[in-house]
C-alpha cells in the first residue's frame, strides 16, 4: 500500500462519525479511531494494546462484537452499552488471509441521542394525551370539526382519537412511522389516513405485504429489473414497487417478515435515497414517505437475529401502537354500522341488526380485532334470510339442510362442551382452510373462493400451520 493510500485510510478513520476498531485474530486491539475514547470511556492509548477479552471483562465493551466474530468466524451485529453508559450499535467483519482469520474490523455508531429523541417523543405523546383529557370541555364547533376529521376511521374512543390526532400532527413531515399492534387492529386504515393528511396526498399510496411476496421474487418486485436481467424477465423491464411510490407513501405491512438479505437492501435505499434495478448499474433516485407496520415485537426479533438492529432504529422514529378492539369497545358500534352499510351496498339489500346482537358484539374479546368483527358481521348478514340480522348459527351435531359441507368433503366441527365462540370459530376456520388447501392450487384461488384478500389467506394459513397441498402439474 502506498503512503498516499495509508493517509487516505487514516483520514477516513479519524474523521468518520462511526468509531472504528481494528483487532487482530487473537483479540488484541491494533488501532481505534480517536472519537472512540469519549464513547467507550478509555483513552485511545489504553485501548490500543488491550485485548477485547480484557475490555469485555472490565465492562468497557458490553459485549465485545470482535469476540463474537472470533467465536463464529462470521460478520456480526449487536447492541452495546459502553462503560460510559452510551448505547451504540456495532457491526464487525472478519478479514481472512489464506483461510486464516487475521483481522476484525468493527465500527460502532452512538445511538444515545436518537434514543433521547424517541424518549422525548414518548413524553410529548403522554403530555398531549393529558392535555386532551384536561380540555374535554372544548366548544361544540371544535368537537364537530374533530368528528368530521376522524369519520373515515370510525374512531369514537378517547384513546383512538388521541392516537389519530398525534398521527395528524406528524403527517406533514416525512418522518418514518412504525405502526404496531395486533393483527386486524386497523394499521392499514391508519396508514392510508396518514397519507391523506400528508403533503404527499396527491401521490400514490403503495401498499406492500412483506409476508405475501415469495422470497425468490421479493427483490425483483421491490427493486424492479432491466430487460434480460434474468430468465423470464419482461422484455421491456419493470419498475419496482419502490419506484412506483415516487412522490407518495410506501406502506410496508408485516415488516417483521422481511427476509434478512432484503432488510439490508431496504436499509441502503433508506440511507441513500436511491434504488438500483436488477441487471442495472445505474441508481435511480426515489422520494417517498415510508410507513411500516407489524404485529410482532421487533425488539425481540432483533435479539433473535431475525431483524437488523440498524434497520430497526431507522424505522422506529415515530412508533404508534394501536390498541386491540377489546380495549376500545366504544369503537365497536361505529365500526359495525360502517361495515353493515358496506355489506348492504355490496349485496344490494337493506338489512338491520337485531337488538339482541349488540350484546354479543360488545361482549366479545375479538382476538382478530376489526378484521374478525367484519368477518363475523358478513357471516351473520349472509346467514340471515330476512331483513333483520341475527347472530350466525354456530353449528350443531347435525348440519342444517341448506348448509353444504366445505369443498373436499370436510364438515364443520360440532361445538365442544365448554367451548366458547372464539375457540369454535378458530377450529371451524382451520377445518375449512384444510379442505381448501387440498382442493385449490394457490392462496389466490383460496382468497377468491372465500371472498377475502390473498394476504389474509397467507396470514391464516401461517396461523394454523397449513400449506397448499394440491399441485398443478
What CATH architecture label of the largest domain applies? 3-Layer(aba) Sandwich
Largest sheet: 5 strands, antiparallel
Fraction in beta strands: 15-25%
Rounded to the nearest angstrom, the radius of gyration is 27 Å
- Calculate the terminal CA-CA distance, rounded to whole Å: 59 Å
- Order of the strands making up the biggest sheet: 2-1-5-4-3
Helix content: 40-55%
**CATH domain class of the largest domain:** Alpha Beta
Instruction: Please tally the β strands and state the result.
Output: 16
Large-scale geometry: elongated
The CATH topology of the largest domain, please? Rossmann fold
Low-confidence segments, given as residue ranges, are 135-146, 393-412
CATH superfamily of the largest domain: P-loop containing nucleotide triphosphate hydrolases
Number of helices: 20
Mean pLDDT: 80
Question: What can you tell me about this protein's structure?
Answer:
By secondary structure, this protein is of the alpha/beta class. Helices cover 44% and strands 16% of the residues. The protein folds into 4 domains: 108 residues, PAS domain (Beta-Lactamase, 2-Layer Sandwich); 153 residues, P-loop containing nucleotide triphosphate hydrolases (Rossmann fold), CATH 3.40.50.300; 65 residues, Helicase, Ruva Protein, domain 3 (Orthogonal Bundle), CATH 1.10.8; 78 residues, no CATH class. Strands 2-1-5-4-3 form a 5-stranded antiparallel β-sheet. The chain has a 5-stranded parallel β-sheet with strand order 7-10-13-6-14. A two-stranded antiparallel sheet has the order 8-9. A hairpin with a 2-residue loop joins strand 4 and strand 5. Helix 15 packs across helix 17 and helix 19 crosses helix 20. The radius of gyration is 27 Å and the shape is elongated.
Amino acid at each position: 500500500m502506498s503512503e498516499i493510500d495509508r493517509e487516505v485510510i487514516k483520514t477516513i478513520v479519524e474523521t468518520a462519525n462511526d468509531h472504528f476498531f481494528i483487532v487482530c485474530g487473537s483479540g488484541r486491539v491494533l488501532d481505534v479511531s480517536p472519537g472512540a475514547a469519549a464513547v467507550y470511556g478509555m483513552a485511545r492509548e489504553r485501548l490500543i494494546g488491550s485485548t477485547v477479552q480484557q475490555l469485555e471483562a472490565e465492562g468497557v465493551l458490553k459485549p465485545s462484537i470482535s469476540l463474537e466474530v472470533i467465536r463464529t468466524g462470521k460478520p456480526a451485529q449487536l447492541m452495546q452499552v459502553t462503560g460510559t453508559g452510551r448505547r451504540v450499535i456495532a457491526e464487525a467483519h472478519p478479514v481472512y488471509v489464506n483461510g486464516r482469520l487475521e483481522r476484525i474490523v468493527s465500527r460502532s455508531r452512538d445511538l444515545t441521542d436518537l434514543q433521547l429523541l424517541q424518549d422525548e417523543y414518548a413524553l410529548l405523546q403522554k403530555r398531549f394525551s393529558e392535555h386532551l383529557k384536561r380540555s374535554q370541555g372544548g366548544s361544540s364547533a371544535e368537537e364537530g370539526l374533530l368528528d368530521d376529521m376522524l369519520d373515515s376511521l370510525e374512531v369514537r374512543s378517547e384513546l383512538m382519537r388521541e392516537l389519530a390526532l398525534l398521527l395528524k400532527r406528524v403527517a406533514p413531515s416525512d418522518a418514518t412511522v412504525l405502526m404496531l399492534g395486533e393483527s386486524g387492529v386497523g394499521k392499514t386504515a391508519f396508514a392510508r389516513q396518514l397519507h391523506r393528511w400528508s403533503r404527499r396526498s396527491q401521490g400514490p399510496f403503495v401498499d406492500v405485504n412483506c409476508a405475501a411476496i415469495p422470497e425468490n421474487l421479493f427483490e425483483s418486485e421491490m427493486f424492479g429489473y432491466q430487460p434480460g436481467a434474468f430468465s423470464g424477465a419482461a422484455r421491456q423491464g419493470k419498475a419496482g414497487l419502490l419506484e412506483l411510490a415516487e412522490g407518495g407513501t410506501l406502506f410496508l405491512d408485516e415488516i417483521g417478515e422481511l427476509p434478512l438479505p432484503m432488510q439490508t437492501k431496504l436499509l441502503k435505499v433508506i440511507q441513500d435515497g436511491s434504488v438500483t434495478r436488477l441487471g442495472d448499474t445505474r441508481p435511480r433516485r426515489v422520494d417517498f414517505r415510508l410507513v411500516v407496520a407489524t404485529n410482532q415485537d421487533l425488539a425481540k426479533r432483533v435479539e433473535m437475529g431475525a431483524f437488523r438492529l440498524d434497520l430497526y432504529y431507522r424505522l422506529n422514529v415515530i412508533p404508534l401502537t394501536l390498541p386491540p378492539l377489546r380495549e376500545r369497545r366504544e369503537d365497536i358500534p361505529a365500526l359495525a354500522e360502517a361495515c353493515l352499510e358496506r355489506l348492504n351496498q355490496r349485496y344490494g339489500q337493506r338489512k338491520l341488526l337485531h337488538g339482541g346482537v349488540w350484546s354479543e358484539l360488545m361482549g366479545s374479546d375479538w382476538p382478530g380485532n376489526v378484521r374478525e368483527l367484519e368477518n363475523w358481521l358478513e357471516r351473520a348478514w349472509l346467514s340471515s334470510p330476512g331483513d333483520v340480522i341475527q347472530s350466525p348459527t354456530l353449528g350443531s351435531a347435525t348440519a342444517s339442510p341448506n348448509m353444504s359441507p366445505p369443498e373436499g368433503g370436510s364438515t364443520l366441527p360440532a361445538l365442544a362442551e365448554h367451548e366458547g365462540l372464539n375457540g369454535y370459530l378458530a377450529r371451524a376456520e382451520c377445518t375449512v382452510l384444510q379442505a381448501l388447501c387440498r382442493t385449490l392450487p394457490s392462496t389466490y384461488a383460496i382468497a377468491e373462493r372465500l371472498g377475502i384478500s390473498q394476504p389474509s389467506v397467507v396470514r391464516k394459513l401461517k396461523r394454523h400451520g397449513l400449506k397448499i397441498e394440491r399441485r398443478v402439474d
